[in-house]
Amino acid sequence: MKIRKGDTVEVIAGNDAGRRAEVLRLVPGRRRVVVEGANVRKKHQKQQQTGGQRPLSAGIIEFEAPIHVSNVMLVCPKCDASVRIGWRWAGDEKRRVCKKCGESVDS
Ligand SMILES: [Zn+2]
Question: Domain residues for 74?
């Protein structure tokens, strides 16, 4: 995956298009990422009584649903723009580079 946890990305599709935020979580198996504040869904939580455990409080829970990696683009810290990513080998290490400025986007 070209996107990693902690990256700043720009959402390019859906209701949150244009939003820039940090990647909180990866779902590599489904090629999805969870982006802070993007694709927020509401879940109605019923009060639950589970044997012995503390009951979960009822109410509406907001959570970020994963979005497909093709709907986000990495923001290059040097270009300050959403850019396409290429790969470059630095010794044995595969580094991500910005296709616009050619600089590494990994610190
Ligand atoms: Zn760049």
Answer: 8-45+60-98
